[in-house]
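hey so i finally got around to running the thing on that chain from the lab meeting. sorry it took forever, my laptop kept dying and i had to restart like 3 times. anyway pasting the input first so we r on the same page abt which one it is
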Amino acid sequence: MALLDYLKSLFILQLLMGFVFVVSGLIINFIQLCTCILWPINKQLYRRINCRLSYSLWSQLVMLLEWWSGTDCTLYTEQATVDMFGKEHAIIILNHNFEIDFLCGWTMCERYGILGSSKVLAKHELLKVPLIGWTWYFLEIVFCKRKWEEDKHTVFKGLSRLKDYPEYMWFLLYCEGTRFTEKKHQISMEIAENKGLPKLKYHLLPRTKGFTTTLQCLKGTVTAVYDVTLNFKDNQTPTLLGIVNGKQYKSDLSVRRFPVEEIPDDEKECANWLHKLYQEKDALQEHYSKEGKFPGPTIIPPRRLWTLLNFLFWATLLLSPLINFACGVVVSGSPLLIIGFILFLIIASIAIRRLIGVTEVKKTGSSYGNQEAKKQN
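ok and heres what got predicted. didnt touch it at all, straight out
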């Protein structure tokens, strides 16, 4: 085990894995661009192909979580709820406290066969991020600037377009709007006090507009809302960089299923329902803080080999020519070639580090609580 941990910490191995992810992602993005000619001819075929192309990229990150770091994922839910996973369109409400919360959501999507078709209401800035934003664009992800007057038309159009989606999808919503920090929490609770809403200890006040709009637009397509509350054993603070270094975490997810028929149609009542849901999520986190686990029966879904096989395919395809080229550079003895290759490695490592930085809490930009931003909204 000590040798394995040492190998996982080697920068050269991490760099090679990053190389595989980036280059395979660019290849996948190019293929996605080529599939655009199918849209006017056969929209559903375009969607099915892009689901599988997206899976081939995202599953590499899931592989890091499941096979490289060996992170455990335990569900606290009823078997009847699990039996519905991957068999219906659903909205997922997930707390936004951790750098890898999206990755824990993706591993659940993967284990139930819907990773490629998973959706999210994403901030517009991510559209400009290479690989991530580009892949999401072809996957018809709905982007928003978090300014309702500007977003209204785009969000309604994007959501309405998903009504006839051919693959079962989970549509992820971070109703808090931004990742939890102590500063944001303080501001959020001041807003709650001003609005006469109950204060939350472990969450920010949910922004109801995104949820009510998504539910309204996808009524008739979505059949359930899954409330997912995530936490980690032993007060762990997981990071994507920790995952890359092979660090193992133990995640717990409490999952509750609500049929859409039980959620009010009226926008105000629906917003109140969401506020009540977050009070219940807060109670679940309080229980976890005291007991070290969520209430209810536990289910550990088995990881699948597909993520590992997919990565090995891309690694075999891309690393062989890279290693041959590197050997050729060394054998050539050309200072110019050697310096050029070293510069390539430096640029590649910086690019990969910047991609990882997108998930980091301390680097996550947000106008939450900014008075000027509020005036603009």
